[in-house]
Each structure stands twice: as C-alpha cells, then as structure tokens.
Amino acid sequence: MELEKHMGGTRNRQTMTANLGAHAMRAERAPLSHVFSLLSLLLCLLCPSSGHAARIGDLVETDLAEQALRFFTFQDPAVRYALLGSMLLGITCGLLGGFIVVRKMALVGDALSHAVLPGVALGFLWNMSKDPVAIFVGAVLAGLLGAAAVHLIKHTTRLKEDTALGLVLASFFAVGICLVTMIQRLPNGNKSGIDKFLFGQAAAIGEGDVKLMLVATGLAVLMILLFYKEFLVTSFDAGFARSVGFPVQAIHYGLMLLLAFAVVIALQAVGVVLVSAMLITPAAAAYLLTDRMHRLLALAALFGLCAGALGAFLSFLRPNLPTGPLMVLAATAVFVLAFLFGPRHGVVARWWRRRSGAARIQRENTLKAVYHVLEAREFKGEGVSLRELAERRRETVEDARQQAVELRRHDFATLQQDGNAIYLTPEGWQRACAIVRNHRLWELYLTNAAHIAADHVHEDAEKIEHVLGEEVVRLIEKRLNYATHDPHGRAIPGLADLRRGEAPASPLPGATGYGRST
Amino acid sequence: MPSPENKVATDNPGSDISLEIHDLTVAYHKKPVLWGIDLVVPRGKLVGIVGPNGAGKSTLIKAAMGLLPISSGWVKVFGEPVKKNLTRIGYVPQRESVDWDFPVSVMDVVLMGRYGHLGLLRRPSKQDRDIARECLDKVKMLPYANRQISNLSGGQQQRVFLARALAQESDLYFMDEPFAGVDAATEAAIVELLHELKSRGKTLMVVHHDLPTARRYFDSLLLLNMRVVAFGPTDQVFTHDLLQSTYGGRLTILSEVAEAVRAKE
Ligand SMILES: Nc1ncnc2c1ncn2[C@@H]1O[C@H](COP(=O)(O)OP(=O)(O)O)[C@@H](O)[C@H]1O
Ligand SMILES: [Mg+2]
C-alpha cells in the first residue's frame, strides 16, 4: 500500500494517469486490455526517441534516460526493493528450475504456479490487505492442495499424470480468477493491486516482500547445499536411491515444497501466468551449456538473477509496465543465445564443426590424391605438379591450386617452382599415408571379414577413411593379420611409412623424401 | 517348491544364508505378479534368474530389496529384515531405468555407490573417491571418469553401473539384466567380474534373459514365472521339462486365476 503511494507521488505516475485516462482504468480490470496496453507500451519502449514515442500514441512524456538514471542511482527505496526482490526470485527459480528440468517435471511447475492463485486471493481476503505472510501461507497451501489433487487423481483413476496436471491447473486457475474478480468488485478492491498477481509488477514489491523473499531464497540455497547429494541421486536414479535407504518420497516432497516457495515469492513480480517460465527458461538455457549438475544449478541461478534484474529495469522505464513478461523475455533471450552460441550444443558451433569437418575431409582427399600421383610413378621424384593433381582429381588447375594453398596453410605442403608444384611436408606425408591406409584397410576388412564384393567397397571406404580412429585401425590391422595389400592389389601404407614421416625408400639416388624445403 | 538346494541351505546355520524369502506375494494394483515365493540362497552363490518376459524377475529383486510394497510374506537378508542390512546390499538396476542424458559424469555416478555408507547429509570424502576410482579401474572405465554419461556406449554404461555397485562394497548383489545390450567384450568382462565376486564370498542374484549363456555363466539357476518353477544347481535345473514349464506357452492355472482377480476389479 505504501509503495503504491510512493509510485503515485512521482510525476510520471500523474502524467500517466492523466494521459492514459480511461485506457488505464480499463486495463485495471480485464486481462485482455491489460495485454493490449502492454503491447502499446512495449511499442513505445522499443522506440529510440521519446519524441517519436510521443507522436505514436501521445502517451508518455517521461524521458527514458531520466527513468533509467532513477533506476541506477538506487535512491528510491521502491527501486531497491524491486531490483533486490527480482534478483532473489531469479536465483530461487533458477535453482529449483534446474531440478525441475532434469526431473522432467516442467509441467508440474506450470500446474503448481497456476494452482496458487486461489490461495493468493484468499490470503488477501484474510484481512483485506496485501499482507505478504498471509498471501505466502495461502499460496503455499493452495499449491500443496493442488499437488495433492494431482496425486489423488493419478492414483485413484486410470488417468495419467499429464491429464491430472492439466485438470488441476485449469480448475484451480479458474477458481483463482473468479476470486480475484470478486475482490476487485469489493469497495476499494480495484486499488488493491491484486490483479498485479496475474502479470506481475516488480514495483509492487515492498519491504515485507523482500524480507520474505530473502528467507525463502536462503532456505532454498541452504537446503540444496545440504541435500545436494540426496537431490542428485533421487533425480538420477530413484530406485537405486531407495535401495541404499534414502527416503526418496520425503526428498521429493521437500523439493516440491521448495518449488512452491519459489513460485510464491516470484508471484508478485512475475505473475501467476508466467511464473513457470522463470523456473524453466533459465534452467533450460543452463542445460544447453553444461553437462554437470552443480554447474547447471549455478548457471541457472545466474541466468535467473540476470533475467530478474533486467526485467525489473525494463519495467521501470515506463510506468505500469508488467514485469513478468519482460523478465521472461529477458530469460528467453538468454536461452536463445545459449541455443545459438552454446560452445558444444549450440547451433553455430555445430554448423562450424560441420563446416570445418567438411574442410578437413576436402584436405584429406587432396592429400590422398597427391599420394596416388606419387604411387602411380612408384614414388620416383618428390614434387607433384598442380597439373598432375588436377588431372588426378578431374578438376581445373585453378581448383588444384586453391587446394594446394589450403594444404600449405595447414603446414601439410609447400609450394615450389613458382607455385606450380606441391611438396608434402612430413606431417602432410603422414596424414596422406594414414588416409590411404584407412581406406585400403577398410576395403580389405569389408571384403575379408564382411564378405562384400571387392567392387562394392570403395564408396563406403571413401566416407569411413575420414572417421576411423587410430585405435580402430590397429584393431582392424590385427584382425587382418597385418595384411600388406588391399583387395585391388595395391600396397597398404604401413605404420613404418607413417612413423617415418618420409617417403618410402626411393630407388632414385638423391631422392631423400618430402622434408620441408624452402 | 522344495528343491535339493533348498534342503541343503536350510540345514546350514543361519549365518551362511544370505537371502531368505518366505511366502512372498507381490501385486501391482491388486494384480498378483509374484505368488508364494519361497527361496533360500546360501552365501557365495552366483544365481541366474531366468524366465520369460513379464515373469516377475525385476519385481522379485525389487521386492527382495524392499523397493516395492509386498502383499504378504517376508524377506531376510543375512538373517535380518532387509531394512537393517541395506548397506550389505548392492544393486544394478536395468540400464533403461535412468536417463543417460542426465548432467552427471561417470565419476559422479560411481560415487553414488558410496551414498549408502555415507547416509544423509555427509559428503563423499577423499577415501570414497579413491574407492570409486578403484572400482572404475576394475571395469576398465577409469579413463572415462570425467566424461558425461551420455557419451558412452551401451556396454560402457553397463560397466559404470557395475562400478557403482562395486563401490557399494556389499555382500549380496542384485543385478537386473546386466548383459542386456552390451558388446561381447563387456559381456566377457562382466562374467569374469561376477566370478571374482563369487570367489570372494559374495552372493549374486543376476537376472538374465538368454538361456544358452545362462547355462554357462551361473552355477545356480532360479527358474521363475510368477512362482518359483525350480531353484538349484544349473545342471539339475536346466532340464527340458523344467524349462518347458517356465516358458511354456499355456497359461498356468495361477495366471488364469490372476486374470480372474483382475477382471473382478
Ligand atoms: N510399475 C508397474 N505397474 C504395474 N504393473 C507392473 C509394473 N511393473 C511391472 N508390472 C507388471 O508385472 C509383471 C512382471 O514385471 P517384471 O517384474 O518387470 O517382469 P520381468 O522383469 O520378468 O520381465 C509384468 O506383467 C508387468 O506388466
Ligand atoms: Mg525386467
């Protein structure tokens, strides 16, 4: 209540009320027009200059910079509470969300967050005020009642869990909406701010709320630190955990209770509708970035914190912006970044790996062609002219030159005779031998061990040669009794050729191999 | 179902019996899955549990460990109720029972084998890590200790589960299909490991689905199909008639009654 006064006292608030007029009044009641006003305000937010914004809707005169400054000086206690509260809820939701995601309970989080709404309304009705404790207790109780209802439906009927969750989610939410509407009809009801619980308003977080959030966050962090091992093993392998005597069911209920706490402290700022996104999105982003549980939790908490702070900041730039959607958008932005740029599973990294993989295969094929040319003249002479290479690969000399440059870039070859001939370095020779060896061994393996006709094996070997690891190659060699010739009668380069990093002994005097010469 | 082995076992003093099951009945949603199971397993036996799909093999070992509510009967482990002796029990669940994309490393999973000894709240110590590392080495998975478990082949996953069970340092092991979906090399390694554990006086109850190898791998067999069809030394139990009645296509009277019970529900 005090906070509302605080906000109302500022110039912005007055301007807004005056300008938005009836629009804002309607927004207080119907969610749909709430969404509508959100959209128009978002539009203003995205506009670079306030002059422009004024032209669009003539809605707001406030200077964005001024409002941002007000946020970052932290002079205003309302700003401090909003920011602190948003960060706390981000941490708690991130941590609990981590477990929700690995336990595949995302739907449970969603159902639970919708189920708390009747509790919020009843908590409000308790003494007709936004008493944080009454609302907290009411919400937690409603959440637990919802969980119990799901349990009951699942265990007494043939319905499966997802259906039970859907049922409970919808019915509890419906009851909640009815109660909220009823409260708003009461005298003083529409000033209550109870509707803020739908889409969230960080500015409505008061000192009492922050204290409660601190307690809940502290409790969640403490519990996860203390029972990390128990949460981990019951999430990964509940049967095993029970077999070593862990109270799996109790641990599950403990986690659900913490989850209810997380949902409830997030309600004020994020709103019932989107709270589950604050559970899932930061954790999902973290899941893409790491494959260790403790790092996942730390990242999820960090992402939640950032999303909370960013959402609170953005919602401060314009009066009456719902915070929840902005926080969720911030978290979603993090997720999209992780999805695109994650070092291991990210789209870009995968694309890059595929691309560099293709480039590697191309290089290896060139090296193989050089080897074939040398082999055709029984390893007499050192250099291979680009023309020979181009003929071998059935390409233009220009293509061959490009590939030669590529080989030089990777230190596999040097170019000589004015760039018209290619000389393999020891590394280049080694790689060429390895590829040819892989190819011929695989062909031999297919014909000998898998009894595939000799004229059917080349295509397959063309692909396999690039992916065979040294260990597998050794195994195949052993299986083939260290055969020296492939099914077409050509010599398989041996380990000795490979190790030497030089050409096989050449009958020509003076041909000393393919060492790097300048 | 008295069998020769049973008689021998009951003659021995209690301390030499690792697992004793008496008149055990287990039901899912009031539909009985195991009926009147009696079993006495002496210490140091390597027992293969065989039977057709849905025979209740997994149910039997879960019920024996106290993971499932039982309708009647009792289970004793080393002469005491199971709950009192949980740290003397090791468990290898079916490999498909967990999510192998879970964000844990091989080492994390093997350390879970120490959790029973640690109890609640205590963290694994340096010593626990050393034990886990030894167990990983025993199944030749030490080089993979820091890998995430999703990067493993089926055989490697199974070795990780075995390493976790080894880290439990138990006297009685229950293993659910440890040979399912593993490569030949892993299968051989597991057999060797089982025999080594047996030679150290451990008792092993191993669910197995492949009859021909069951004969070679185990010195005792438990033929199971809702009830104990036979239990005893492999050469006495692995007979055409007994296998026929274990795997026989015809519904036994028991399962017909079970169907009737379910229909009434
Ligand atoms: N959680 C469960 N709920 C209901 N029925 C089950 C459950 N688990 C197993 N069953 C039933 O119990 C019977 C025995 O299952 P199980 O012990 O897994 O067999 P096995 O391991 O021998 O293949 C099967 O008919 C199966 O359908
Ligand atoms: Mg089974």
Descriptive overview:
By secondary structure, chain A is mostly helical. Chain A has two domains: 11-342, ABC transporter involved in vitamin B12 uptake, BtuC (Orthogonal Bundle); 352-499, Winged helix-like DNA-binding domain superfamily/Winged helix DNA-binding domain (Arc Repressor Mutant, subunit A), CATH 1.10.10. Chain A has 26 helices and three strands. Chain A has helices at 2-9, 11-20, 22-29, 31-46, 50-57, 64-73, 77-102, 106-115, 117-127, 132-156, 161-185, 196-199, 207-226, 228-236, 238-243, 248-270, 275-289, 293-317, 323-341, 347-376, 386-393, 397-409, 426-448, 458-464, 470-479, 495-500, and strands at residues 384-385, 413-416, 421-424. A three-stranded antiparallel β-sheet of chain A has the order 1-3-2. Chain A is elongated. With 265 residues, chain B is an alpha/beta fold. Chain B has a single domain (4-264), classed as Rossmann fold. Chain B is 38% helix and 24% strand. Chain B has a six-stranded mixed β-sheet, with helices on both faces. In chain B, strand 7 (172-176), helix 7 and strand 8 (203-207) form a beta-alpha-beta unit. Chain B is globular. The interface between A and B is medium-sized, with 26 and 31 residues. The structure holds adenosine-5'-diphosphate (ADP) and magnesium ion.
List the helices and strands and how they pair.
The complex is a heterodimer of chains A (518) and B (265).
Chain A: H1 2-9, H2 11-20, H3 22-29, H4 31-46, H5 50-57, H6 64-73, H7 77-102, H8 106-115, H9 117-127, H10 132-156, H11 161-185, H12 196-199, H13 207-226, H14 228-236, H15 238-243, H16 248-270, H17 275-289, H18 293-317, H19 323-341, H20 347-376, E1 384-385, H21 386-393, H22 397-409, E2 413-416, E3 421-424, H23 426-448, H24 458-464, H25 470-479, H26 495-500
Antiparallel strand pairs in A: 1-3, 2-3
Helix pairs in contact in A: 3-4, 4-5, 7-13, 7-16, 7-17, 7-18, 8-10, 8-11, 8-17, 9-10, 9-11, 10-11, 10-16, 13-16, 16-17, 17-18, 17-19, 18-19, 20-21, 20-22, 20-23, 21-22, 23-24, 23-25
Chain B: H1 4-11, E1 17-28, E2 31-42, E3 46-50, H2 57-64, E4 72-77, E5 80-81, E6 89-92, H3 106-111, H4 115-118, H5 126-138, H6 154-167, E7 172-176, H7 184-199, E8 203-207, H8 211-217, E9 220-225, E10 227-233, H9 234-237, H10 240-247, H11 253-264
Parallel strand pairs in B: 3-8, 3-9, 6-7, 7-8
Antiparallel strand pairs in B: 1-2, 1-4, 4-5, 9-10
Helix pairs in contact in B: 5-6
Bound molecules: adenosine-5'-diphosphate (ADP) and magnesium ion.
